[in-house]
Amino acid sequence: MFFKLVAFLLVSLAAAEDLSFTYNGFQSVNLSLDGVAGVTPNGLLRLTNDTRQDQGHAFYPNPVNFKSSPNGTVFSFSSTFVFAIRSEYADLSGHGIVFVVAPTRGLPGALPSQYLGLFNEGNNGNATNHVFAVELDTIQSKEFNDINDNHVGIDINGLHSANSTTAGYYAQNNGGFQNLKLSSGQPMQVWVDYDGTNKQISVTLAPIKVEKPQAPLLSLNLDLSPILNETMYVGFSSSTGSIFTSHYVLGWSFKMNGQAQEIVMSKLPKLPRMGGKKRSKLLTIGVPILSVSLVLLVVSGLIYFIRRKRKFAELLEDWELEYGPQRFKYKELYIATKGFKEKELLGAGGFGKVYRGILPSSKIEIAVKRVSHESRQGMKEFIAEVVSIGRLRHRNLVPLLGYCRRKGELLLVYDYMSNGSLDKYLYDQPVVTLNWSQRFRVIRGVASGLFYLHEGWEQVVIHRDVKASNVLLDAELNARLGDFGLARLYDHGTDPQTTHIVGTLGYLAPEHTRSGRATTSTDVFAFGAFVLEVACGRRPIEAHGPDQDLILVDWVFSFWNRGAILEARDQNLSSEFVAEEVELVLKLGLLCSHSEPTARPSMRQVVQYLEGDIALPELSLLGLSSNGLTFAHHEGFDDFAMSYSSSLGKGFSHSSYAAESTLLSGGR
Ligand SMILES: Nc1ncnc2c1ncn2[C@@H]1O[C@H](COP(=O)(O)OP(=O)(O)O)[C@@H](O)[C@H]1O
Ligand SMILES: *[C@@H]1O[C@H](CO)[C@@H](O)[C@H](O)[C@H]1NC(C)=O
Ligand SMILES: *[C@@H]1O[C@H](CO)[C@@H](O)[C@H](O)[C@H]1NC(C)=O
Ligand SMILES: *[C@@H]1O[C@H](CO)[C@@H](O)[C@H](O)[C@H]1NC(C)=O
Ligand SMILES: *[C@@H]1O[C@H](CO)[C@@H](O)[C@H](O)[C@H]1NC(C)=O
Ligand SMILES: *[C@@H]1O[C@H](CO)[C@@H](O)[C@H](O)[C@H]1NC(C)=O
Ligand SMILES: *[C@@H]1O[C@H](CO)[C@@H](O)[C@H](O)[C@H]1NC(C)=O
């Protein structure tokens, strides 16, 4: 009884001097911090703050007596703490946390990463370190024989653990071993106990909601007396590697010669929200949704781009590169014409549809002609001509601004002619008609434009499709010849099986239909038909009942034959006309329609006749006897008609009926 009392007195006396502290959070706690360690405003001890390759230390600021004398034995001690390791990735983390008993407050010369802020390559394992540590390591460092990347180890003077094992705990009532993931971000509790009597170290780990397991996770029978000096410092060390990781200690309790006081979990500071459950929710729900929508976005973006690319795809070959300025982007034309809207359609001719547009860059009004064209043959020559013609500017030619090529399609870009094509002023009871001086001006203008194509340019350009509907009127009612040379595209490489249009019936010279060859003379023939058209206000061929076509040339010729050529003029002209001019024009029309090419004047002569520079020769002197013309003309025409009648049926009621190359090439 007495001994018991004495023993009790002794123990309580020692207890009175023995150090003991408990921190349920570290708000306003006096700790010795270094490295990146710090205490957050809400009291978390944050050893590393989301950094890489860094370390932090936190020590109880005062020295702690572990022995009563330098040669004495180490007292029993007990410590427990709650920690959490949070990293940017769920499965990866940077190194770990160490509970450490060391001779100094800092650990001078210590390195981060695998050295855990405890040692360096020089002093690791050296007995002069006098360090006892318990490591919670999340990286397997092979150099220190780490067993895995989630282990708890007891370290004496170095990082080669004296004993180590996988993190986890032995659940009560034979619940078996439960694994714990140190870097899970969840707070966990650790107990480090040293039994000074039995010289035994034991380390226990558990989730915070679990009572201290009876069986320790790890133990080591070792007398710490040679390891620890009389006075030591206790604290924590942490280090990060290549992953941003934060190491937290939430609470800490220590007692020399006794059981450390329990940590009050409810008083512990809260961990930041970023990690843990919130993050995993974000990962399990947010990330899949995000990635699915991202994939959808990328796919739809791709489809959009491919479709767009296809939509605006064009053909561009090497030989075209020199035509850069004349080359339009399909996209530009697409935008200009509002996507080739029907509303923008100006008309449709033999070669394709013509759309009105406004160039987005320059705001210039344009007319875009879409010509479908499968064959590559002749394209190069044609484009070369288009471009060279595009370079020439003449008052009586529709300015050709450039072109664009797509698969099976050619787009020609012209200046917009605000008054449209001439034909609509001439026949079918026109709403607006032209007076004689306007008509005469138009005829002279077209003659001048055609003359320019034939002779004013370094190469002879044959128009091939002179007719009223190809004469456009600009804002000042200047006649401008359009479509030049386009027929040529179809002259080249014509496929006898396909129907191509080369020139227009009623304007085709007889020798042209026979040989299929266009010459300046065939242009003059078409010009003749055009001139008669303008003067008479009639189409070259008009239907007047079945088998009763009016052939304009024959009709005018019959007037001439009767000596009353002026009667052939358009009755819409009323009385305001200059008789000499009308007569000149009608006679010129007949002359140009001569079935014998050599008898037709050249465009140079035509211009001279029209300007009055030279007098028109007498038609009768040119062999235009009544039989001569009629016969000659009909010979050619019947030829033509015969070859057509099978395919076109009876009568060519509209002048817009076009000749087909199949027949032309057959004639070649
Ligand atoms: N540069 C332009 N400016 C305004 N209108 C045009 C232009 N080019 C063509 N058009 C219109 O488009 C219609 C069809 O043109 P086009 O294909 O040349 O006819 P065609 O082949 O019958 O001669 C013309 O009747 C004209 O009204
Ligand atoms: C913290 O502890 C150290 C060492 O004992 C002492 O020097 C310092 O004054 C203390 N600081 C506070 C704020 O108590
Ligand atoms: C971590 O702490 C250091 C030192 O206090 C500071 O310079 C750094 O900005 C902090 N980093 C983060 C991510 O908080
Ligand atoms: C401590 O031990 C050493 C050798 O182990 C001895 O030399 C020394 O005298 C001892 N000191 C005391 C105070 O016992
Ligand atoms: C241990 O450290 C001491 C002092 O720093 C040094 O003299 C000694 O050589 C080291 N021993 C080994 C094995 O490195
Ligand atoms: C290491 O700890 C385990 C678990 O406590 C124990 O069974 C084992 O004997 C220990 N090993 C050593 C070498 O002490
Ligand atoms: C620890 O004790 C050893 C001898 O027991 C001594 O050589 C060493 O200097 C001491 N270290 C410190 C930091 O006091």
Automatic annotation (TrEMBL):
<dbReference type="GO" id="GO:0030246">
    <property type="term" value="F:carbohydrate binding"/>
</dbReference>
<feature type="domain" description="Protein kinase">
    <location>
        <begin position="340"/>
        <end position="616"/>
    </location>
</feature>
<keyword id="KW-0067">ATP-binding</keyword>
<keyword id="KW-0675">Receptor</keyword>
<keyword id="KW-0430">Lectin</keyword>
<keyword id="KW-0732">Signal</keyword>
<dbReference type="GO" id="GO:0004674">
    <property type="term" value="F:protein serine/threonine kinase activity"/>
</dbReference>
<dbReference type="Pfam" id="PF00069">
    <property type="entry name" value="Pkinase"/>
</dbReference>
<feature type="binding site">
    <location>
        <position position="369"/>
    </location>
    <ligand>
        <name>ATP</name>
    </ligand>
</feature>
<keyword id="KW-0472">Membrane</keyword>
<dbReference type="InterPro" id="IPR013320">
    <property type="entry name" value="ConA-like_dom_sf"/>
</dbReference>
<keyword id="KW-0325">Glycoprotein</keyword>
<keyword id="KW-0808">Transferase</keyword>
<keyword id="KW-0418">Kinase</keyword>
<dbReference type="InterPro" id="IPR001220">
    <property type="entry name" value="Legume_lectin_dom"/>
</dbReference>
<dbReference type="InterPro" id="IPR000719">
    <property type="entry name" value="Prot_kinase_dom"/>
</dbReference>
<dbReference type="InterPro" id="IPR017441">
    <property type="entry name" value="Protein_kinase_ATP_BS"/>
</dbReference>
<keyword id="KW-0812">Transmembrane</keyword>
<dbReference type="GO" id="GO:0016020">
    <property type="term" value="C:membrane"/>
</dbReference>
<keyword id="KW-1133">Transmembrane helix</keyword>
<dbReference type="InterPro" id="IPR050528">
    <property type="entry name" value="L-type_Lectin-RKs"/>
</dbReference>
<keyword id="KW-0723">Serine/threonine-protein kinase</keyword>
<keyword id="KW-0547">Nucleotide-binding</keyword>
<comment type="similarity">
    <text>In the C-terminal section; belongs to the protein kinase superfamily. Ser/Thr protein kinase family.</text>
</comment>
<dbReference type="InterPro" id="IPR011009">
    <property type="entry name" value="Kinase-like_dom_sf"/>
</dbReference>
<dbReference type="Pfam" id="PF00139">
    <property type="entry name" value="Lectin_legB"/>
</dbReference>
<dbReference type="GO" id="GO:0005524">
    <property type="term" value="F:ATP binding"/>
</dbReference>
<comment type="similarity">
    <text>In the N-terminal section; belongs to the leguminous lectin family.</text>
</comment>
<dbReference type="InterPro" id="IPR008271">
    <property type="entry name" value="Ser/Thr_kinase_AS"/>
</dbReference>
<feature type="transmembrane region" description="Helical">
    <location>
        <begin position="282"/>
        <end position="306"/>
    </location>
</feature>
<protein>
    <recommendedName>
        <fullName>non-specific serine/threonine protein kinase</fullName>
        <ecNumber>2.7.11.1</ecNumber>
    </recommendedName>
</protein>
<feature type="signal peptide">
    <location>
        <begin position="1"/>
        <end position="16"/>
    </location>
</feature>
